[in-house]
Amino acid sequence: MTNNDSVWSIEELVALTDEIQKAEVDFRGKVFSFEYADLTEEEEPKMLPLDESASSEEQALWYQKVGSERILAMIRKATARNPEGNPPIDEESWKKLPATLRYKIIAEILNMDSDTKANFPNG
After folding, report:
1. Is residue 87 within 8 Å of residue 104, measured between CB atoms?
2. Which pLDDT value is given to residue 113?
3. Which residues are CB-neighbours of 55 under 8 A, at least 6 positions away?
4. Are 38 and 110 in contact, with CB atoms under 8 Å apart?
């Protein structure tokens, strides 16, 4: 951080996108470890815009897909930068993981662990 440890500098924030983050979640009595990296705007997955006339269900599905693609891109970036790290999660395996584990991974990355515990207490 800068001279004032409570204030970020631009250089420090930019450097965060080069760091590989390591995380783990508890799942059914075992630990699952994974790595991810923050994305820059250019690295964000490109999605078609949501149709303004979309139903609530279509909107929810669209946001779910966007979120999942973003998390997967963060995991892919870390894997590309550190191929010897934790076992990589590719797109095929991501889709096959138990939904509750995927939600825990997403929550951990987005620092929403308390919401996940409230919604999936046995996950």
Report:
1. no
2. 47
3. none
4. no
**Coil, strand, or helix at residue 11?**
helix
* 16-36: pLDDT as tens digits: 899 999 999 999 999 999 999
> Tens digits of per-residue pLDDT, 105-122?
999 998 854 544 555 555
Is 67 a domain residue?
yes
If you search the block for the tokens 């929403």, which residue do you land on?
Answer: 112
Q: Does residue 83 form part of some domain?
A: yes
Q: Is residue 44 part of a domain?
A: yes
Among candidates 93, 102, 97, 94, which has minimal Cα distance to 120? Answer: 102
Question: Residue 101's pLDDT is what?
Answer: 95
Residue numbers of the domain that contains 41: 21-119
Distance separating alpha carbons of residues 52 and 55, to the nearest angstrom: 9
* Tally of domains in the chain: 1
Distance of CA 96 to the CA centre of its chain: 16
Distance CA 11, CA 1 (A): 9
Q: What percent of the chain has pLDDT over 70?
A: 88
Is residue 10 a part of any domain in this protein? no
